[in-house]
Amino acid sequence: MATARKKQISLTDTKYYHCISRCVRRAFLCGEDKFTGKSYEHRRDWVEEKLLMLGFVFCIDVCAYTVMSNHTHIVLYVDDTKAKRLSDKAVVIRWHKLFKGNWISQKYIEDEPLSESEQLMLDELVDKYRERLADISWFMRVLNEDIARRANKEDNCTGRFWEGRFKSQALLDEAALTACLAYVDLNPIRAKIAATPETSDYTSIKKRIDHAKLKQPKSLLRFAGSPRKHMPKGLPFELKSYIELVELTGQCIRADKRGYIFESQPILTRLNIEPENWIKLTTQFSRVFHGAVGRERTITAYCETLQKRRRTNLTNCERLLA
């Protein structure tokens, strides 16, 4: 039986989560249907555009993503602290970018005076909106429902478009986060859709490379450098090191090349991940792990927070993240 979403999310232990959504029909989410010859490539634009827009509206940052022919991979960072700091008006304005709200929120945003009872109702409404703006389930719901409606309309059909609810994995430490980011960014290369990271369309790695000569893209959570005492918000790695790591990993994955992950790579050295294990992590992440991912200490803390009796993935985590 599927685990309830509230039993998978613990912002006390981690704010990073890997989300996967799969299409239920043979007719592709994107790509080209070889049976009919019809192309659905334009739907990749739908997904990427909506995803990055939601990153600006929600208090949830997009760390990595890839849009495949029948599924999507997204790594998210939940900034609940930002949601708590937003003013009531900012919360309502953000929510109105997605939904109409109701007559009270509309009245409030137009600066019309509210009675005492209306103010109480507004306060409850704002609290609900604030909570939703830092909720992964709402983020993925808004994304997937929009794509499903547009695809169903285009296909002139009704019914379920996605294969149930999205799946999510908690990424409990830097090792799990790094492996998952590379796994997501290298999906098109593993599937032989692209030859190099810079030519893999509709991926976060391509967007980062395209912007690398200027500055990091605002639509993605920035790389903030190596962890330090006063760490700013951002991924705890150097962007240059990460891009080099993805490039070298991609060479190892390609069938026409025999590559090698050098022991001197800064991220792998600091994370103490064996090069042999790294290839398996970045090619089979979703297959090897079916729940929270991290080293024993972080998994134990995560399970204690959510009152879980079983520490799933522990054996594979100890074997591959060490």
Provide the fold topology.
Blueprint: E1 16-22, H1 42-57, E2 60-67, E3 71-78, H2 80-85, H3 88-96, H4 103-109, H5 116-132, H6 136-155, E4 167-170, H7 174-185, H8 187-190, H9 204-211, H10 239-253, H11 266-271, H12 275-288, H13 296-305, H14 314-320
Antiparallel strand pairs: 1-3, 1-4, 2-3
Share in helix: 40-55%
Largest sheet: 4 strands, antiparallel
Strand order of the largest sheet: 2-3-1-4
Rg of Cα set: 21 Å
**Element-by-element helix/strand order:** EHEEHHHHHEHHHHHHHH
Terminal CA distance reads 30 Å
Describe, in plain words, how this protein is organized in 3D.
This protein has helices at residues 42-57, 80-85, 88-96, 103-109, 116-132, 136-155, 174-185, 187-190, 204-211, 239-253, 266-271, 275-288, 296-305, 314-320, and strands at residues 16-22, 60-67, 71-78, 167-170. By secondary structure, the protein is an alpha+beta fold. β2 and β3 form a beta hairpin. α1 (42-57) runs antiparallel to α6 and α7 (174-185) crosses α12 (275-288). The model has no long low-confidence stretch (mean pLDDT 85).
Summarize the structure.
This protein is α+β, with helices and mostly antiparallel strands and 322 residues long.
Search tags:
8% strand; single chain; 4-stranded antiparallel β-sheet
